[in-house]
């Protein structure tokens, strides 16, 4: 019955009923995409391995509202409201780990599909409806605020298309509105949040600034990641302003005050956020990792860099050929065997800094609660 209701809604253009639990990918108090296995294998620099399970918070004090990226492989320009394995997988790999600190809410929405994106990149003109996608998320947000929030602090989390939608949501429904009082932070990853050049506030948000301290609440965390030795090429859509006088904000979750810092990554042990791939060894003298995630302490560093008109998160692999651990990571967007350098490390934007983002959410909540 629930599936039939979701299918009927997907066939029309009416606003989804977010009182219907089938229209949520993740909600607290049930088994779903955000209660999947989140165990990680920690591979130290000497190759030693330890198992790290995740312990969800028993009584989380704040909420997380997550909007997933372009991931649906539905054949239509906009997806339906029935989540496929790809939507469930991306929630596991991007949002579920925040459950260590918060209640996670993730609406299913009729997003512009991966099928349509590939068509656009190939020069096609699919009949995409971005308003449909935004209106669904806005309806889910309104339902959450009306029925679930009850004065709690909330962290907004999005990636790629999800970040674009949340950027619009903050601009139209939160900034300067009563809901701004509940905003712990907005983590708008894998997109460009415009601010006046050299400033932390303005641009798209009149009063919501970029985060410049881990003890700052009500602010924005945003970045697009590129390999340090492969900076953004001129044709990229990331890391730049959308008009003269503005630039893309860049905030390093591991060092909001600036500078280079070691990244606390939780990477896919095999494959990427879209598809499961063969498990990798991650060290020369060890078997393939069998947990969904792998953590590699000290292997990656990140720094916000301003260069040639771009602001981006430059990621360095601290390779050491003398230790047994891998000297490279996957994460590039490819067309066949060709790396699309204009996309940077878009596939692993969130995973590169996920430990830092999760820890930051708790610290920002404490700052928010102190202000209250």
Give the oligomer, counting copies of the same chain as homo and different chains as hetero.
single chain
Order of strands in the sheet with most strands: 1-5-4-6-7-9
Query: Helix fraction?
Result: 10-25%
What's the rounded overall pLDDT mean?
A: 92
Distance between the termini: 43 Å
Total domain modules = 1
Major β-sheet, in short? 6 strands, mixed
Q: How does CATH name the architecture? A: 3-Layer(aba) Sandwich
> How many individual β-strands?
18
Poorly predicted segments: 1-13
SSE pattern: HEEEEHEHHEHEEEEEEEEEEEEHH
Question: Can you count the helices?
Answer: 7
- Report the CATH C-level class: Alpha Beta
Helices and strands: which structural class? alpha/beta
Shape by Cα distribution: globular
What does this protein look like?
The chain has helices at residues 2-11, 85-94, 114-121, 130-149, 161-174, 349-352, 354-371; strands at residues 24-26, 40-43, 49-52, 62-67, 102-107, 154-159, 183-189, 194-196, 219-223, 225-227, 246-248, 261-262, 267-268, 293-295, 300-307, 310-317, 334-335, 338-339. The strands form five sheets. A six-stranded mixed sheet has the order 1-5-4-6-7-9, sandwiched between helices. A four-stranded mixed sheet has the order 3-2-14-13, with no helix packed on it. A four-stranded mixed sheet has the order 10-16-15-12, with no helix packed on it. 23% of the residues lie in helices and 21% in strands. A hairpin with a 2-residue loop joins strand 15 (300-307) and strand 16 (310-317). By secondary structure, it is an alpha/beta fold. It has a single domain (2-39, 53-258, 341-371), classed as 3-Layer(aba) Sandwich (Rossmann fold), CATH 3.40.50. Pfam families: DUF3089. It comes from Sphingomonas kyeonggiensis.
């Amino acid at each position: 019955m629930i599936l039939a209701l979701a299918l009927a809604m997907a066939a029309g253009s009416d606003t989804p009923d977010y009182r219907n639990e089938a229209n949520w990918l993740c909600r607290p108090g049930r088994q779903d995409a955000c209660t999947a296995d989140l165990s990680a294998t920690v591979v130290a620099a000497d190759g030693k391995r330890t198992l790290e399970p995740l312990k969800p918070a028993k009584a989380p004090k704040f909420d997380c509202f997550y909007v997933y990226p372009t991931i649906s492989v539905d054949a239509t320009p906009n997806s339906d409201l029935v989540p496929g394995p790809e939507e469930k997988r991306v929630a596991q790999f991007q949002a579920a780990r925040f459950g260590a600190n918060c209640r996670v809410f993730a609406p299913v929405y009729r997003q512009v599909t991966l099928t349509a994106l590939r068509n656009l990149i190939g020069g096609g003109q699919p009949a995409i409806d971005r308003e449909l996608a935004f209106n669904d998320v806005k309806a889910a947000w309104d339902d959450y605020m009306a029925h679930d929030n009850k004065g709690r602090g909330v962290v907004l989390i999005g990636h790629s298309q999800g970040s674009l939608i949340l950027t619009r949501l903050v601009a139209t429904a939160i900034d300067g509105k009563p809901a701004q009082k509940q905003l712990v932070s907005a983590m708008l990853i894998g997109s460009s949040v415009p601010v006046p050049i050299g400033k932390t506030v303005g641009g798209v948000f009149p009063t919501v600034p970029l985060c410049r301290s881990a003890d700052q609440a009500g602010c924005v965390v945003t970045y697009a990641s590129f390999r340090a030795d492969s900076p953004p090429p001129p044709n990229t859509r990331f890391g730049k302003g959308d008009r003269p006088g503005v630039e893309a904000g860049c905030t390093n979750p591991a060092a909001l005050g600036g500078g280079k810092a070691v990244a606390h990554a939780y990477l896919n042990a095999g494959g990427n956020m879209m598809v499961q791939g063969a498990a990798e060894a991650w060290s020369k003298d060890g078997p393939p990792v069998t947990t969904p995630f792998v953590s590699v302490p000290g292997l990656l560093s990140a720094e916000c860099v301003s260069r040639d008109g771009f602001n981006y998160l430059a990621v360095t692999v601290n390779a050491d050929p003398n230790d047994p651990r891998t000297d490279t990571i996957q994460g590039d967007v490819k067309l066949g065997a060709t790396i699309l350098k204009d996309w940077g490390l878009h596939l692993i934007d969130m995973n590169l800094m996920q430990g830092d983002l999760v820890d930051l959410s708790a610290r920002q909540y404490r700052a928010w609660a102190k202000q209250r």
